[in-house]
Design goal:
The two termini are 18 Å apart. The chain has a five-stranded antiparallel sheet, with helices on one face. With 126 residues, it is an alpha+beta fold.
Length: 126
């Protein structure tokens, strides 16, 4: 079930609970702006989620509300995680879903990092 609308941030979403330490996660990276962890249902040999520590539902929400330092820190964290995962040379894909048509499942901004194999077409049509 995806996010029905881009409503105000829900402090009880699963990623907020992971950030508070209420739900365990296999941490890959953490700094002042971001937290990265392995996806529990990986879609590629490497599948890591990177989330900002702030309360943002989508990229648009993040772009509108986050201070410049937080935006820069989060974007740098995504790049750092890809580098630390060792997938830069072979290539990787970033994916961020926003809203109901994208099948966003958690109402907290997150970026998927996929790698470790040839990933195929960018979009699946059906």
């Amino acid at each position: 079930m995806g996010v029905e609308t881009l409503e105000p941030y829900d402090d009880d979403n699963i990623f907020a609970r992971i950030l508070r330490g209420e739900i365990p996660a296999r941490k890959v990276y953490e700094d002042d702006h971001a937290f990265a962890f392995h996806d529990i249902n990986p879609q590629a040999p490497t599948h890591v989620l990177v989330i900002p520590k702030g309360r943002y539902v989508s990229w648009a929400d993040f772009a509108a509300k986050a201070p410049d330092a937080e935006i820069a820190g989060f974007v740098r964290a995504v790049g750092t995680v890809a580098h630390e995962l060792g997938i830069e040379d072979s290539g990787y894909r970033l994916l961020a879903n926003a809203g109901p048509n994208s099948h966003q499942e958690v109402p907290h901004l997150h970026v998927h990092i996929f790698g470790g194999k040839k990933l195929g077409p960018m979009l699946v049509t059906s």
